[in-house]
Specification:
It is a single chain. The protein is an alpha/beta fold and 327 residues long. Helices cover 12% and strands 29% of the residues.
Length: 327
């Protein structure tokens, strides 16, 4: 799901020009090539290229997609640096470079300096910079943050937190859920709150979805975590950053979906299932309860077990084990 949005609606943008980048990168900086000094307005990804922005590229094949003169490339790959014509920085640590640049370009809600301007309306705190349709019903003790859009006839129940999100029409979000929370992004070699990779994307929940109680849906790292039309999420479900769930998914309680998973249309997922990150699930897939999905699944698959396999093979394995004395 590719949807462009104005990041400055949700975050506080600071002034940053190309000439400032070398100073920000400090010891991480190695070299640069032929810079145009324009103001940086955003961060690009490989999926959405934005004017006057910075993109972070680690792999050479990804570099071949970039042909925009108003995009600064930051890379730790010497082959990319040597192949580029202009507007490129070579760094030693691309994760650290991302953190430094993004934290200097935007103030987000993992910053102490981030602030919002709330009004107390019927027992809930609503940002003055949110956009909520007059037909929306909001319960008590909710917090609706800066830039949030909620479209017509949606219902937000009690104790719900929504930030960095666009919510469609006829959506129901049940009690104690958090939408747009910080994604779990960090460097394995530098752990702790000081080294979090800033998550500056959003969540987009499309029309006619139901989100159960005590669910969490993390915002994307740069672009969008997407929940498609007519999706039904039970209670206690976690959706990580960059996940894309297509229309008509039905997901039972206590399911956890790791980052950057893509799920096709009409998928049914049993309770307590878990998904490894960066895998693709086809259309019309059925996943039995307590399955551990560790690899891609093609359209119309029916799977069970850990690791999840075709359900007929899984049942045969269970019967075989019982015959051999395992219970």
């Amino acid at each position: 799901m590719i949807l462009n949005f104005n990041r400055s609606d949700f975050l506080i943008k600071k002034i940053l020009k190309v000439k400032d980048i070398k100073k920000i990168l400090k010891k991480n900086f190695i070299n640069f090539k032929d810079l145009d000094n324009f103001e940086i307005n955003d961060i690009s990804s490989l999926y959405i290229l934005r004017e006057n922005s910075i993109i972070f590229i680690e792999y050479y094949d990804d570099y071949l997609k970039i042909e925009n003169s108003k995009i600064i490339i930051i890379t730790n790959n010497e082959k990319i640096f040597n192949s580029s014509e202009k507007n490129t920085f070579l760094v030693s640590d691309i994760s650290d470079a991302y953190n430094c640049i993004v934290n200097n370009l935007f103030a987000h809600d993992d910053h102490q300096i981030y602030n919002d301007n709330f009004e107390l309306i019927n027992g809930s705190y609503i940002s003055k910079q949110s956009n909520i349709h007059s037909s929306v019903s909001i319960g008590k003790n909710c917090i609706i943050g800066r830039g949030v859009q909620i479209k017509s006839d949606s219902i937000i129940k009690n104790n719900v937190v929504i930030k960095n999100s666009i919510i469609g029409s006829n959506v129901i979000i049940c009690d104690n859920s958090t939408i747009g929370s910080t994604g779990f992004g960090f460097d394995f070699n530098k752990r702790g709150a000081n080294y979090l990779n800033p998550q500056i994307g959003i969540v987009f929940i499309d029309n006619n979805c139901h989100i159960g109680s005590n669910c969490t849906i993390d915002r994307a790292k740069i672009d969008i975590t997407y929940i498609g039309k007519n999706c039904m999420l039970d209670n206690l479900i976690h959706i990580a950053h960059n996940v894309e769930i297509s229309d008509n998914a039905c997901i039972a309680a206590q399911t956890g979906i790791s980052g950057s998973v893509k799920i096709g249309k009409n998928v049914t997922i049993g309770g307590q299932s878990g998904f490894a990150g960066h895998i693709n699930i086809g259309d019309n897939v059925v996943i039995a309860a307590k399955s551990g999905v560790t690899k891609n699944l093609i359209d119309n698959s029916v799977v069970a077990g850990f690791p999840a396999i075709d359900i007929k093979n899984w049942k045969r394995n269970i019967i075989r084990e019982r015959k051999n004395g395992y219970k």
